[in-house]
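**Fold tokens**
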Amino acid sequence: FSAAARGPWRIEAYADVKARPIGELKFLVEDYVPDRVDVMLATAATSIRAGSAASVDVSARYLYGAPGADLAISGEVSLAAASRTPLRGYEDYLVGLTDQKVEPVTKEIEEAGNTDAQGKATVAVTLPESEAQRPLEATIKLRVGEAGGRAVERTLTLPVALDGPVVAVKKLFDDGALSAGALAQFAVIAANPDGSRLARDGLSWTVSRIDRTWQWYLADGRWNYEATRTSRRVADGRISVGTGEPARLSIPADWGSYRLDISMGGAQTSVAYSVGHAGELTADAPDVLDVALDKDSYTNGEAMVLNIKPRFAGRATVAIIGDKAQAW
């Protein structure tokens, strides 16, 4: 393929030339020209706040040593769900509506300008609007154009600062490791965006059981389905938090999926969790059986409790397989 023409290519593998291919690979052939400009991004900001601009310093220099003077700068900033909580000292706590789906939002950076005679520039970055009620992070992409028309892109990621006091929750158990009949325990704190703790009385909390049903519908002559989720309150109460040890909340656990909601004025945090030991579900379809065990391991002769929740009517066949014996 040393003389392959530029453009998209596809390789197909056949076990039988008269049958469909058993595998294929798509790839793109392009001319490769190495970068001639090195670009670096830096900022003194540790976070970016909605409604205000963050300054990003750009430094461009040709690889042969000369400053990248008078080069055009362009770029965009995008918002997406943060991978961790931007609460200093409490990054392992959860804040906001953690089960809320956040679609990334992108905004072009206008009037980014050009580099000066020393190959430097400062770009002001403002965030696009988002109604998400969970921690976000901003990804800033800036491109510096070379004289030949190419552009060198660099990326910088900053957490979005929280708007005000928050209630933060930490699960004191591992996901998928909560046995039926045990207690679901949580640590609860109230804090300012900088991580300083607050004392508050009477935070309200509720626990809702989340049930999923399936609705079939006929459209364009074909049957399809969609999932619907309903919630039913199963417990509620109030809790007070201080500036010392985090408050503890213990909730009896039964089979199923749940969501804990805690409110403090206008701040709200939700945490989803499940009870029972189950595998990872990769298919969101009505013909998948929800199965969970009451424990993560068993000794010889110990009783096993199996919870089966069908998404459809039918009969289930259970096989129990170990490393030394098999039973039906």
